[in-house]
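Dear Dr. H.,

I hope your travels went smoothly. While you were away I took the liberty of generating a structure for the chain from your last submission, since the lab meeting agenda had it listed for discussion. I wanted you to have the full record in hand beforehand rather than looking at slides cold. The sequence, exactly as received, is reproduced here:
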Amino acid sequence: MIDFHRHITTPFPYISPDTYWFATTRIEEYKMYQGDTSHMHGYGYLFEQESDEIESAIEKYLQNDPFGYIGEVGIDTRLTHLISLEKQLEVVKKLTQLALEYSRPIVFHVNASFTLMEKIFTLGKGHIIMIVHNFTGSVETAHELYKKGVYVSIGPRVWQQGMKIGKRIKEVNVPLLLETDYTDGSQDQSESLLKQHYAWYAREKEIEYKTVVEQMNELSSVFQNHPINR
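The corresponding predicted structure, in token form, is as follows:
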């Protein structure tokens, strides 16, 4: 199975039947991917530490990592005490340009109005894979983002917390990605949560579990090999 967003917490090897799109938010986490050839390696940054060299730091890893992508990066109104939204957007734009340069996917963390990301979405549309992870917005917003070339990934919290998007998931008629957004170090708990998430999605969509597995595998394969141009 595919987990489209899981945070790396300990160095490899990870022995698992699943494939993870690992994510990071700090430069010092990047080195934990060393030696792995089974998973996707996200190089991210969420302004939790100062770095004027984040672009060059990520580029160095992308140059040598065929499994590398950019993520998670984005904007967050809760972090404006560290850095203004304007500066956050400036950094995200530069990293989107870097994703374009290397033809790699980019995963966004957006805890603010999606309208602030309009220019960035336009920049990447039709050229690179763009994903908004941990999406909790409306069905209508999911559809609008897809038109802008952006996929949305949903985590277990949509059903754990009874969110509207979880209750209306059957109405979503664009491809959805499934993630755990797992941050703990327990491999058993991570695998169990992913299975529960797949089972919930299959039940709500009224499709077979194996069909969900096939859908996620296909999307992951496409994302890893070439952009989808629409």
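Two observations you may find useful: The chain has eight helices and eight strands. The longest strand covers residues 68-76.

With kind regards,
E. W.
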